[in-house]
Amino acid sequence: MNVPQEALYIFAGLGMALAIASAVGYVLHRRAASSVVDNLNARIRAWWVMIAISGGVLLAGNEAIITLFGLLSFFAFREFVTQTPVRRADHTALFVSFFLALPAQYLLVGVQWYGLFAIFIPVYAFLTIPILSAVFADAQKFLQRTAETQWGLMICVYCLSHVPALLTLQIPGYQGRSALLVVFLMLIVQASDVLQYIWGKLAGRHKIAPAVSPSKTVEGFLGGIASATLLGAALWQITPFSPLAAGAMALMITLVGFLGGLVMSAIKRDRGIKDWGQLLEGHGGMLDRLDSVCFSAPIFFHVTRYFFAL
After folding, report:
1. Can you give the pLDDT at residue 148?
2. Which residues constitute the domain of residue 263?
3. How far separated are the first and last CA of the chain, in Å rounded?
């Protein structure tokens, strides 16, 4: 696969930024070691791993990108299920969800069967899951158990599968560059999260939703969203959008991602947990890193498909 040159420049820039961050983290650790500095350095190390894997997968081609997101869905769904009550009657439904529905969804992305990809989980898996649980005649908390499995499958598999589905879009004058849409989406969402964190630490005063996500502030939200929107507009050349449209897309992505993060935080508070898991050092679980992406990806995909694709 011929990787668009712009993607190489972006990853080179990210590598430089991480190198600077690593140097700053090292100096801070030497001068004033603390739990905050240790957490910062842990996050930076995790980012090195994530960027290296992302760059390698991008070089490997579209099939590797689809496979990667299939694996990410698996780990995210697994984290979600471990935080929900499961009974013996649910085992068949979970087996079908993990080992049939999940790979089938990504296979549909790979063969570019949009008609079935768009409805496979929301219709067929949605109806199949409660049937599989019901045949075992276990009615205790049936609605709650079924809804939690359906919700996990929708968020962690269906929604996240819209990221590699961007590769299937046929956009006039953009042939062979669809991987850049994946780069754009992931970069803006992750940059928004980081920038909200930075703005919140620098100027955060007013809690935006203290009962749901105590660390989020109005100042962090406004600063992060504005900064990520400007970044999106600046990256318009890697997209099929004009500078204004790229900025508008970035604004939409960041707003939906922020609201999705709030939803997932509310679920964590309901479960009495801080993180979905411990897979990523300094970041928590896979779902902690992808919660915003899960909400923004389907919106970005469908808006792009409706307004810009054939």
Report:
1. 92
2. 175-310
3. 23
- Identify whether the C-beta of residue 76 lies closer than 8 Å to the C-beta of residue 292: no
- Residue 305, CA distances (Å) to 23, 83, 309 in order: 41, 34, 5
**What Rg, from alpha-carbon coordinates, does the chain have?**
20
What does the pLDDT look like over 32-49, one tens digit per residue?
777 767 777 787 888 888
Residue 276 and residue 207 in one domain: yes
- Predicted confidence at residue 85, as pLDDT, reads 80
The closest alpha carbon to 62, from 10, 12, 128, 110, belongs to 110
> Coil, strand, or helix at residue 280?
strand
Q: What is the residue type of 300?
A: F
- Which residue type does 287 have? L
Note every long-range contact of 270-274, with CB atoms under 8 Å and residues 24 or more positions apart, other chains counting. 271/83, 271/84, 273/83
Q: 10 Å Cβ neighbour count for 234?
A: 12
- Positive or negative torsion for Cα 17, 19, 20, 21: positive
Q: Mark whether 35 and 68 lie in a shared domain.
A: no
Closest CA to 72 of 156, 134, 1, 147: 156
CB neighbour list of residue 43: distance below 8 Å, 6 or more residues apart = 281, 282, 283
Let me know whether 197 and 277 are in one domain: yes
238-270: pLDDT as tens digits = 999 999 999 999 999 999 999 999 999 999 988
Tokens coding 182: 């994946």
Does the pTM of the predicted model rise above 0.70? yes
Q: How many domains are contained in the chain?
A: 3
Question: Span 132-160, mean pLDDT?
Answer: 89
